[in-house]
Design brief:
By secondary structure, the chain is α+β, with helices and mostly antiparallel strands. Helices cover 49% and strands 17% of the residues.
Length: 718
């Protein structure tokens, strides 16, 4: 391509003039109106002193559908799964699946990206995300003290390290005087010795870390311009795709672009009604005051080749070939042969307007019933009192009140208006698939048959599943293919990440250029309760089929994984072991029957020989044991005889010793008894003598008795 910048700008202007986007007034108006309906803004037909209530049907529908759609994609640990090309490719495809899912959902704010992406599509017809690979640089300063010369040289040789400050000094731990004395003693010049003392350094360095990263960002629909020839959400075959965004000149220069100060904002196509509709807090400002410029990142087909042009004002600051368009697009309802689809706002805006009108009429009629109109005689009634309507209020009149004040009758609001509101709700449910049943809001569900409710819920679920499948097969699949492509093309070194509770090394340099991708989301299987019933049935059938070879451990593991994810746990490997990661050892083929029979006969003969050998060895062992036992018995018998004789001698000696001791004790006892007897006899004799003396003394000292005769005369003493 040999086009000058003026020719490139001219071609871009031509494509912009006929593209979907800010130049398309009808599309911009539709999107802006959808945002206003979502925010509940007034319709513009409101009347003063009348009800101005707005029904939030657009918001309610989108916010009710969004959690059900998000759960389909973010509830498990895998949004998509890459399909292997052959048996040898299964392990690689498995690792690529885990790593790409990790990059989208963990390294990037995956949930937030999907949330905004889906809401853009449900509200503004189409949702867009941008995917690119960026080298991120981070700088940090560090200081070190006491480094040797070798350590300083190692720091200086590192390309990622810049030495900012360096202070060198001799090692303070070395005694310089001692070095001089040693040098003089050795006959060496002291100055030379001092010059050879090791030096230490204090260093301040700056470390620059460069790390590549796949980045994903939501793009506002009004910032995209798409060729009208694009007939599907897929932008890879689109003739013209442009992303517009305002940024600062300093940011562009940081990215390496040479941009002059006077380039200007140059936003000649100022039809961004959608952005203005979102401006509910006065968020618009003059961007030129902050040195902001409008950047047009443009992808365009020229002469059968795709080129990328980055345009600021009237300058083309980047011109390069491009092998892909870094955008993925989704829409809830495809329009055949068109890029722009239909949104949930398109399906419910008219219902919101009708319901708001009906509710306003009901409220106005209620206000009129509570504060009716009256015909009054102004000459006899105080008008100011009539204009104030409050409980217990007084109205001053002259004359008869009945002839001065007459209430004006007004027709009651027809009851059919309430039925009409319910009808509009049912119409909304049929259009969108968002019903009171799957939101748990229908208070009368218990009064309806389970079959009827189930049929309604299934029909509604199918509509939401169709939207989820549309998202999956268009933008979601394209997003993961783009991430896979960028990683394979740009990541020049391996990455160590934690996948499935294990640290693994991933090297994208050996990956294949894959185009086969399956979105592994739980679609088309009913509600979670239905999925649980189906999975339990499958597991019970697998248990029976395992015995006849109709299933295996890997398929049972797959069913258990789905069951675990259905229960709300993202990582099934926390509960089950994948047999594919520990495959069983390959069994050798069965031998030939004839050869097996010969080997069996040989084995039998060998067993007989071994049995005879064992029998002979056993008999020899028995004979040896008998001989040993006899020898032991003889030895034991001899030892026993000697022990008995020794015991007899010892017993006889003990007996003699005991007899001697006993005899000695008897003699001692005899002598003791003899002495005791003599002492007793002597003591008895002594006692007898004492007693005889005492008797004589007593007899002498005994009182006398006088003996008298019959006449009383003393005749004697006794």
């Amino acid at each position: 391509m040999n086009l000058r910048d003026e020719e490139i700008l001219y071609k871009i202007d031509q494509e912009e003039a006929i593209a979907y986007g800010v130049n398309d007034a009808a599309l911009s108006d539709d999107r802006a109106q959808a945002i206003e309906y979502y925010l509940g803004e007034p319709f513009g037909n409101e009347q003063e002193e009348r009800s101005q209530v707005v029904s939030f049907d657009v918001q309610d529908t989108i916010e009710s559908a969004l959690p059900q759609l998000l759960k389909v994609f973010v509830a498990g640990d895998r949004v998509v799964q890459f399909i292997p090309r052959g048996p040898e490719d299964e392990a690689s495809a498995e690792q690529e699946t885990d790593y790409i899912n990790y990059l989208v959902m963990e390294r990037n704010p995956g949930f937030e990206i999907f949330y905004v992406w889906f809401k853009d599509a449900l509200l503004s017809k189409n949702g867009y995300v941008k995917v690119w690979y960026e080298e991120e640089k981070s700088e940090e300063e560090e200081s070190y003290t006491g480094l040797t010369e070798a350590q300083v040289q190692a720091l200086a040789s590192d390309n990622d390290i810049e030495i900012l400050e360096l202070t060198s000094y001799t090692d303070p731990a070395i005694d310089q005087m001692a070095v001089q004395d040693q040098a003089i003693a050795a006959g060496i010049d002291p100055m030379i010795a001092l010059a050879n003392i090791p030096m230490l350094s204090d260093v301040k360095i700056k470390i620059t870390n460069t790390q590549g990263k796949v980045k994903i960002r939501n793009v506002a629909p009004e910032n995209m311009m798409i060729s009208v020839d694009t007939d599907s959400p897929d932008l890879q075959e689109s003739r013209f795709v442009q992303h517009r965004e305002s940024t600062t000149i300093a940011e562009l220069r940081k990215q390496g672009f040479d941009v002059p100060d006077d380039v200007g904002f140059t936003d000649t196509d100022n039809f961004q009604e959608e952005s203005n509709a979102r401006d509910i807090y006065e968020e618009q400002y003059d961007r030129t005051q902050f040195d902001e410029v409008l950047v047009k990142d443009t992808y365009m087909m020229i002469d059968g080749e795709r080129w990328r042009f980055v345009v600021v004002g009237n300058l083309v600051i980047l011109k390069e070939k491009a092998d892909h368009v870094p955008f993925a697009c989704i829409t809830p309802m495809l329009m055949p042969h068109r890029h722009i689809g239909r949104s949930y706002a398109d399906l419910t805006m008219d219902i919101q307007l009708i319901k708001s009108t009906l509710i306003r009429g009901q409220l106005d009629n209620m206000y009129l019933s509570n504060n009716g109109r009256y015909a009054v005689d102004s000459s006899r009634v105080n008008i100011e009192d009539m204009l104030v309507s409050r409980p217990g209020g007084i109205v001053r009149i002259q004359g008869d009140p009945g002839s001065s004040i007459m209430p004006l009758s007004h027709p009651a609001f027809p009851p059919t208006s309430f039925t009409m509101v319910e009808y509009m709700d049912s119409m909304k449910e049929k259009r969108t698939g968002v019903t009171a049943y799957n939101q748990g809001l229908d208070a009368n569900s218990l009064n309806k048959t389970a079959t009827g409710v189930g049929m309604v819920m299934n029909a509604a679920q199918q509509r939401l599943e169709l939207v989820a499948r549309t998202f999956a097969e268009t933008g979601v699949k394209q997003l993961f293919l783009l991430v896979h492509k960028l990683v394979r093309q740009n990541q020049m070194k391996s990455d160590v990440v934690r996948l499935r509770n294990r640290w693994v090394e991933v090297d994208p340099r050996g990956w294949k250029n894959r185009a086969d991708l399956m979105v592994s989301v739980g679609l088309g299987t009913g509600s979670k309760d239905q999925q649980l019933a189906y999975l339990n049935t499958i597991l019970s059938l697998q248990e029976k089929a395992l015995g006849v070879g109709l299933t295996d451990g890997v398929r049972i593991y797959n069913a258990l994984s789905r069951l675990t994810q259905n229960a709300g746990f993202k990582n099934p490997d926390e509960f089950w072991t994948n047999p594919a990661e520990n495959p069983p050892q390959q069994q050798e083929p069965a031998p030939d029957p004839t050869e097996q029979a010969i080997q069996g006969q040989l084995a039998i003969e060998q067993m007989k020989i071994e049995a005879d050998k064992e029998k002979i060895a056993a008999q020899a062992e028995i004979d040896r044991m008998k001989a040993e036992m006899q020898l032991q018995q003889e030895q034991l018998r001899s030892a026993n005889d000697v022990a008995i004789e020794q015991e007899k001698v010892r017993a006889q000696m003990e007996l003699e010793r005991w007899k001697a001791e006993l005899q000695a004790q008897v003699e001692l006892q005899k002598e003791a008894m003899k002495l005791e007897t003599q002492r007793a006899i002597k003591e008895m004799d002594t006692n007898a003598q004492i007693m005889s003396s005492e008797r004589m003394a007593m007899a002498m000292n005994k009182p006398k008795t006088v003996i008298r005769d019959a006449e009383g005369k003393v005749i004697g003493v006794e």
